[in-house]
Design a protein that fits this description.
- The structure holds two protein chains of two kinds.
- Chain A contains 16 helices and five strands.
- In chain A, the strands form two sheets. Chain A has a three-stranded antiparallel beta sheet, with no helix packed on it. Chain A has a two-stranded antiparallel ribbon with strand order 4-5.
- By secondary structure, chain A is mainly alpha-helical.
- In chain A, helix 1 runs antiparallel to helix 2.
- By secondary structure, chain B is mainly α.
- A two-stranded antiparallel ribbon of chain B has the order 1-2.
- In chain B, helix 3 packs across helix 6 and helix 10 packs across helix 11.
- The chains are: A mainly alpha, B mainly alpha.
- Chains A and B meet through helix 10, helix 13, helix 14, helix 15 and helix 16 of A and helix 5, helix 7 and helix 8 of B.
Chain lengths: 363, 254
């Protein structure tokens, strides 16, 4: 593969290039020697990362793929990476093959996967892995097809940037919601997949969301009921929102403990979707709309009538009308009078014209 | 001699109105941001009372006050009925009558200039009865739907599955109706009305002036005067019976 620099100001001077190369080699040497010891510990991982970042924080580090002209960029914002959920891990956790330097092109290009074993252990000493979440995602409605719209791990964790992985547990509700609404509020995308486009709008009418809007953090967002990774439509028996599982989902600890079937299937948390399906709710909404509009219209008319009577506005209006009518009438009468005054003259003129015409034409 | 005044509301009735007034305002203020969460400045109400949990607690305390007020009124109505030996038309002067329909029609004619005078209203005219029954309709709707939303798991489990969505719609829509009616209609009748501006003081003093009595309740005024004339007395405020407790003065049986 031929590599060319993708940077607009690619005419990097020779001395710069040499300097960068020297730095890179230096960094690589120290990195390779340090790596085996760095695998287990976060601090050591961070140290190893520092060696990678010596090159990878350089601006505009990248190339344009000569095969399809796709730009590939390798610059990493160190601050963003260190602030991410993976900030304390070494680069080799996800890029084990990239430790060799110069990086073998094919290996470096290998996409890291999220379901492999990490090289760290959790607090109980077990090897840490995201394999379960990855498997759940693959088994979910989101992982079923190979549609480009299907979300990957990175769609929700890090907004597409693999070096900005964010932890969702404990994140503010708005952040946890945004992971879903990014796609589910997109009406076009939802229409493409036959998914109700009002899922987000109807949720925003629920007390779950309104409480969040006013600062609550404990009420349910999307993932609390639909799960984060194992999302399945309600019709699927395995879904957390399937009829058979709803009581358990609603009755989670710190939620609606003691919830039974009728509570769980009420559908109040996506009210609009429920209204579409239940004529009773539809008529109830229309009833209140008519009641409110009718009552208020009646009361407003009553007030306007009362006020006009108190100030005699109707009398005033009538007088004004009479005055306008009289004024217009007088003007019209005068105009008619003028016409009438002209009448004899017009008649004489007409008769004279007729006589002249008769003479000219027939005599 | 001071101006004569007439008792319109007894102390107990004023108490009922005050409880309703305070609880209504508190419920409306703490409820309306929840109805319009997208209106940013309404959220300041929750900020002022110390956040959503505090607002929720205040809303529920006010709800208990309003429900208690409603129950007290029901007891009061029963007592009136017993006192009047189970003659509802006598015991409850708020009940709509055929005269109210006639008055409504005559008032409409008057408004359009097709009649010279307003009809002669009795103690409670049709507007006042409308206000009264608006509360009679609204309070149970708000109470039942509110309790369902307050204890969703209990009521949700024991009622049909549509109960919670129905309560949700009823509570938010009826609240809008009630607030609009109060702010537009009731406030017009007791505040903005040119005859009353800035405010009718009857909710505090319980009394209205003789002039107001003649203008707005001529039938009742004449009846009281007739009773007084029979007794050959001047109907001073202190000597007048409290008709508000037991309905029109001439119908009092005890």
């Amino acid at each position: 593969m031929q590599i060319e620099c993708a940077v607009p100001n690619a005419a990097v001077s020779g001395s710069h290039r040499a300097a960068a190369g020297a730095l890179a080699v230096l960094a690589a040497l120290t990195l390779v020697s340090a790596f085996p010891a760095a695998a287990q510990q976060d601090s050591a991982g961070a140290a190893a990362s520092a060696r990678c970042l010596a090159c990878h924080t350089m601006p505009n580090l990248g190339y344009r793929d000569s095969a399809n002209a796709a730009p590939r960029e390798f610059t990493i914002a160190a601050g963003v990476f260190h602030g991410s959920a993976h900030g304390a891990l070494g680069c080799a956790q996800c890029h084990p093959q990239a430790v060799e330097f110069p990086h073998p092109a094919a290996r470096a290009a290998a996409q890291p996967s999220c379901d492999g074993d990490c090289h760290v252990v959790d607090s109980l000493g077990r090897p840490y892995t995201h394999a379960r979440e990855a498997a759940d995602l693959r088994a979910s409605i989101h992982g079923a097809g190979h549609d480009p719209d299907d979300p990957t791990c990175l769609t929700c964790h890090g907004a597409g940037n693999p070096h900005a992985i964010a932890r969702m547990t404990g994140a503010p509700p708005a952040v946890r919601m945004a992971a879903c609404t990014g796609c589910h509020a997109d009406r076009e995308m939802m229409a493409r997949h036959g998914v109700p486009a009002d899922a987000v709008v109807s949720y925003e009418r629920s007390f779950h969301y309104k409480a969040i809007r006013f600062g609550a953090t404990g009420t349910a967002v999307c993932t609390d009921c639909h799960t984060a990774h194992h999302v399945l439509p309600a019709g699927d028996q395995r879904s957390s929102v399937a009829a058979g599982n709803l009581t358990r989902t609603c009755g989670q600890a710190n939620c609606h403990e003691g919830a039974q079937r009728n509570f769980a299937v009420s559908g109040a948390n996506h009210l609009d979707l429920r209204v579409d399906k239940s004529p009773l709710l539809f008529f109830e909404e229309k009833f209140f709309l008519l009641l409110t509009a009718g009552t208020m219209l009646m009361l407003l008319v009553g007030i306007v009538l009362d006020v006009q009577k108190k100030f005699d506005w109707l009398v005033l209006a009538r007088r004004l009308g009479r005055f306008a009518g009289r004024f217009a009438g007088r003007r019209m009468a005068r105009a008619l009078g003028v016409l009438r005054g002209l009448g004899p003259r017009i008649a004489v003129a007409g008769r004279a014209t007729a006589l002249v015409m008769q003479r000219v034409l027939y005599d | 001699m001071t101006e004569r005044s007439f008792v319109r509301l007894s102390r107990f009735q004023r108490g009922q109105h005050l409880a309703m007034l305070i609880s209504f305002l508190v419920l409306a203020l703490t409820g309306i941001p929840m109805r319009f969460p997208q209106v940013h400045w309404l959220g300041a109400i929750y900020g002022a009372v110390g956040g959503l949990p505090a607002a929720r607690a205040i809303h529920r305390v006010a709800a208990v006050v309003m429900i208690a007020d409603g129950l007290v009124h029901l007891v009061y109505l029963s007592v009136l009925l017993v006192r009047h030996r189970f003659r509802p038309w006598e015991a409850w002067p708020m009940l709509p009558t055929w005269k109210d329909a006639q008055d409504w029609w005559a008032t409409s004619l008057y408004y359009f200039g097709l009649r010279k005078d307003l009809p002669r209203y009795d103690r409670f005219n049709f507007r006042e009865k409308f206000d009264y029954f608006a509360v009679f309709w609204g309070l149970p709707v708000m109470m039942i739907s509110g309790l369902i939303l307050w204890f969703p798991v209990y009521f949700g489990n024991h009622l049909p599955d549509l109960a919670i969505p129905m309560a949700y719609i009823a509570h938010s829509d009826e609240a809008i109706l009630a607030i609009s009616a109060i702010v537009v209609w009731h406030f017009y009748n007791v505040h903005y009305n040119p005859d009353k501006f800035p405010m009718s003081w009857v909710w505090l003093t319980g009394r209205i002036s003789e002039e107001e009595m003649i203008r707005e309740h001529p039938l009742e005024y004449e009846r009281i005067r007739a009773v007084a004339a029979e007794r050959d007395e001047t109907p001073t405020a202190t000597e007048l019976p409290e008709p508000a407790v037991a309905g029109p003065a001439d119908r009092r049986t005890i």
